[in-house]
Task: inverse folding
């Protein structure tokens, strides 16, 4: 089954509409609303099992909103910015929660934050805003691995026969996800620089809004 790009219609170009109230955008917002629920379940209630369920729902909406957008022609400019932003914020918020809970070490959080901080700084330098670049294939795969590895890691903290196997599989997924995160960041960095320079060449008088 084709997971990446599922729902796309062959031969039909994808058009980003000026839409706000769409099903994919609603699912994206719903996904991020799951973050405070996850935080409370882990830090407040210490209910790791229910926290895994919340992560599973969040991960499924990440795939469903993309499928619906492509299948029913509901792709939008807002969604192209909102979806990856929600993914990044959710992943970082979840990582912060796991660090506080003692499930992962601080270096895991740093490995997620440092590339995004660099990309954010470069984007502000060139555009003063979001660079509006399409999500890369490796970026989608990276997110999938991280969204799979995190609940597996939480499952390993529960007492059941396969907890050890869950721990190993979790870190395989998280390791691949982090590697993909840095590779995707490297590609985005050069894509941002290329787009920024092209815009300056088209309009030499435009300094990106810097006075």
Result:
């Amino acid at each position: 089954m084709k997971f990446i790009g599922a729902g796309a219609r062959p031969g039909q170009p994808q058009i980003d509409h000026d839409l706000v109230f769409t099903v994919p955008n609603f699912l994206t917002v719903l996904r991020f609303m799951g973050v405070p629920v996850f935080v409370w379940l882990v830090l407040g209630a210490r209910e790791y099992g229910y926290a895994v369920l919340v992560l599973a729902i969040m991960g499924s909406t990440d795939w469903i909103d993309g499928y619906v957008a492509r299948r029913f022609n509901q792709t939008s400019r807002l969604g192209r910015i909102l979806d990856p932003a929600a993914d990044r914020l959710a992943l970082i918020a979840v990582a912060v929660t796991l660090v506080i809970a003692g499930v992962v070490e601080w270096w895991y959080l740093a490995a997620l934050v440092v590339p995004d901080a660099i990309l954010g700084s470069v984007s502000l330098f060139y555009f003063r805003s979001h660079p509006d670049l399409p999500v890369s294939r490796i970026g989608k795969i990276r997110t999938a691995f991280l969204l799979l590895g995190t609940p597996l890691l939480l499952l390993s903290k529960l007492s059941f026969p396969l907890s050890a196997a869950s721990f190993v599989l979790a870190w395989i997924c998280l390791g691949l996800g982090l590697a993909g995160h840095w590779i995707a960041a490297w590609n985005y960095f050069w894509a941002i620089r290329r787009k920024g320079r092209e815009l300056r060449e088209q309009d030499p008088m435009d300094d990106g809004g810097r006075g």
Notes: The radius of gyration is 18 Å. Residues 163-202 form the longest helix (40 residues). The mean pLDDT is 85. The chain has six helices and no strands.
